Amino acid sequence: MDNKNLRAGLKHGDFIIIDLLCLQLCFIISYWLHMPFANPYSIDSFQYQAVILTTSQLLVIVFTDNYKGILHRGKLEELWAVIKYIAAVMILALIYLFAVKHSTAASRLQLGFTSVTYAAADYIFRQLNKLRVFNSGKYRQNRHSVVLITSSDSAGKTLAALMSDPRHSSFFISGVIITDRECGNGEKLRDIPVYPLDEETISRLSHGWVDEVFLLQSETMTFPSELMDSLFRMGITLNYSIPPMTDGRWNATEMRSLGPYRVLSSSASSAPAGKLALKRLADIAGGLIGCIITLIVFVFLAPAIYIKSPGPVFFRQKRVGQNGKPFVMYKFRSMYMDAEKRKQELMEKNRIDSGMMFKMDDDPRIIGSEKKDRNGRPRGIGNFIRRHSIDELPQFFNVLRGNMSLVGTRPPTPDEWEKYGLGHRIRMSIKPGLTGLWQVSGRSRITDFEEVVRLDREYIENWSLLLDLKIILKTVAVVFKGSGAE
């Protein structure tokens, strides 16, 4: 299976499930059309035929691009796609049944009825699922935020071309930056905010929800070298049109389409779609196992937390995720209820001078930290939870939802994110993770934020599935030892 088919299949898993279930339903209905109302799976010959049909269906799903662009097809285009899909499934099944000499009049009749009923039912269910997706409040959240950068003479027609393309439903234009003139306050183009190219706008790119930038250089536009430097330092995926990138500082890692334009993309976190799909499958498997472990731990941990500090067992906090997209992160509560209010009072004791993260010795906000051992070290329930990273377990739910990955970079809070410089933003050019390279390289012992950024950049630029596996194994060892954490 090639990368594009794999990516489309994983992206549209709901349509795959509908197709699989619909085939079995139509197989049963088709059996009832020419036989008594009974269970076709109880008869060996029809049970065998059902297995062959399902196998054929899975082969067609895996080795064709049936689901590519499914959300962007018109009604007639979708009908033709359904007919081709079903024809491929039935032809494969017939070829096999004839080859093994298992084809009978009854089996051919069954296949014929199944083809007709499946074509009608599958088309209807696909259309209904499209309505569900389009009416979902999360549909826009799953689209890519793209900022267009171009000159004033190209902005209007470029924006019109992007928004009129059928593939526009996979992304939305969140802003337009004009390079050759000043822009009025609140100026819009086709209801999209327009900004001038200045330091304030670059700051917007650094702290806003921006997945990609599309830079269209017109004939009247000077090549924006300084802007390119800033975008690359921030780790934003850059799509540059027209001339190929010849400057060695911005290596073009991928050529692809953005709307009707053919672009070269440069990204510090570039990886083949197939490997990213495998990483997501690993996240789903790990997330499921982790959620089960979290439920078991909850049964024993919840009473201990509540008795020592009455209040919610879980702690919800807004964090900044991939490319500046906000999400809610979950933890077991290991601090007293007023921890966030007291944080400002304790900032002068922060061991990380830059204020980009908060770490302090003997944090009094931790539940039970007033209790000390013979060496004067805190030994409360909150300290135990944090030492062994038990507070992080609920984040397996975030991994399962897709907000986070098993391995990545730790997500900052919004106030920390606002302090980021251009070179810091690259940390969030990938999906945040439960653990990462800098956690297993020292965890709380690392107090230099620039060293954190260096390790995160090293992970991003050298990412591989093997590296993820090594980090996970090291994390398990570090957590059980309780080393390097507070």
Mean pLDDT: 82
The number of helices is 16
Radius of gyration, rounded?
A: 27 Å
What characterizes the major β-sheet? 8 strands, mixed
Structural class by helix and strand composition: alpha/beta
Give the helices and strands as they follow along the chain.
HHHHHEHEEEHEHEEEHEEHHHEHEHHH
Question: How much of the sequence is in beta strands?
Answer: 5-15%
State the helical fraction.
40-55%
Strands in their spatial order, largest beta sheet: 3-4-2-1-5-6-8-7
Specify the overall morphology.
flat
Number of domains: 3
Distance between the termini: 45 Å
Total beta strands:
12
Low-confidence stretches: 1-6
In short:
The protein is an alpha/beta fold and 486 residues long.
Describe the secondary-structure layout.
Blueprint: H1 3-11, H2 13-34, H3 44-63, H4 75-99, H5 105-134, E1 144-150, H6 152-164, E2 171-178, E3 188-189, E4 192-196, H7 199-207, E5 212-215, H8 225-234, E6 237-240, E7 254-258, E8 261-266, H9 273-308, E9 314-320, E10 326-332, H10 339-343, H11 381-387, H12 395-401, E11 405-407, H13 414-418, E12 433-435, H14 437-440, H15 449-461, H16 465-481
Parallel strand pairs: 1-2, 1-5, 2-4, 5-6, 11-12
Antiparallel strand pairs: 3-4, 6-8, 7-8, 9-10
What are its keywords?
486 residues; alpha/beta; Rossmann fold; 3 domains; eight-stranded mixed β-sheet; two-stranded antiparallel sheet; 16 helices; 13% strand; disordered N terminus
